[in-house]
Amino acid sequence: MRIYDDLSSALSALIRDLHATRARLAAIREQLAADRDEFRGRLGATQHPAVLRAEYEATSAIRQVDEADQHVQAAIAAARVQAAQLHVDVGGSLGSVPGDATREVDPRATDGAEASHLGRFDPQPYLDEMPVFVREGRTRPKTHGRWRDRHGATHRLLSGYDGHYSPLIDQRAIRLGLIPNGAKLLTSGDVEMKFAMARRETWARTGVVTRETIVINNPKGPCSGKLSCDGLLNRYLPPGGELTVCWPGGNHKTYRGVPDQ
Where are the domains of the chain? Predict the structure, then answer.
């Protein structure tokens, strides 16, 4: 039986390593997306070929990371099948495969306690490193944000209409009947909305629902109104997903995704 024990341990270790690889891929993807969005946000609506090419290459890199993640998922599934078969061979059953061989680990999930109970999360260090939010005349200032993923990596967020999430936000608003065809939401470039759309995109691709926390430097927090961040975030987050937004002054609010009506 020793050889079966060794094989079972090796398979469990392999599966754990593969899950860790998925976690690293998830962190890389999120950083690529944030950098691409910040790049587009800084350059505004310019259609210069060099800018479009750079944005295209960044999006292609994100897709390649997604493809790599799919291959890792397939490897995990194959290893689980082997672990299950090994257990059957030694007298077990498919319903009782032991240990990590069958344990589902969500590589994109944030620690729920951290996201929902801010006693374990201090937004102040992130606020300290971000620019002070200043309104100058009638120009709408950029909102800066930070997101710390479950692995401790910090990702920069920046408001501004981008070439990926903002169009998706507008398209969803049209499907929901919130705005007419061809229209754009005033909030489709907001940090909170783009982050929620990214979570919905991940959920649509993987089925993973997460609870996340972001910090923004806008002292008023998420904008208010029917078609604002405050009014729409629950319709853009995936059903069951949560997003806690923190802003200056020790303020925060948690939004929970609801199913489409």
Answer: 2-101, 112-256
